[in-house]
Design brief:
There is one protein chain. By secondary structure, this protein is an all-alpha fold. It has a domain at about 35-100. It has three helices and no strands. The protein has helices at about 25-60, 65-85, 85-100. Helix 1 packs antiparallel against helix 2. It is elongated, with a radius of gyration of 24 Å. The two termini are about 35 Å apart.
Amino acid sequence: MPLPTPLLLPLEDPGIISNGSGLPGLAQLRQIVGALLTFGLVACVAALVIAAVVWGFGSNSGNPHLAGRGKSGVLVAAGAALLIGAANAIVTFFSNVGATI
């Protein structure tokens, strides 16, 4: 006896799109997020400077552990700045990819 085939419903688009003016306070939230981006980039600059100083101090004092920590700090600060700067593009890319699924 063959198994019954399941009923397949057509996939329908519910027609919901992003609404840039649907929430009160959205403009203020965008300003806050923009300020957080700026704060994050300033913090990355400070971290990069501190890590570079640690790297230089470790190299000049013959302390390979300290120099290695400074190198790691430089890479982490640069990577964080890259991600913060690209946050808008990353979110937009994945939003567009998600909309095509």
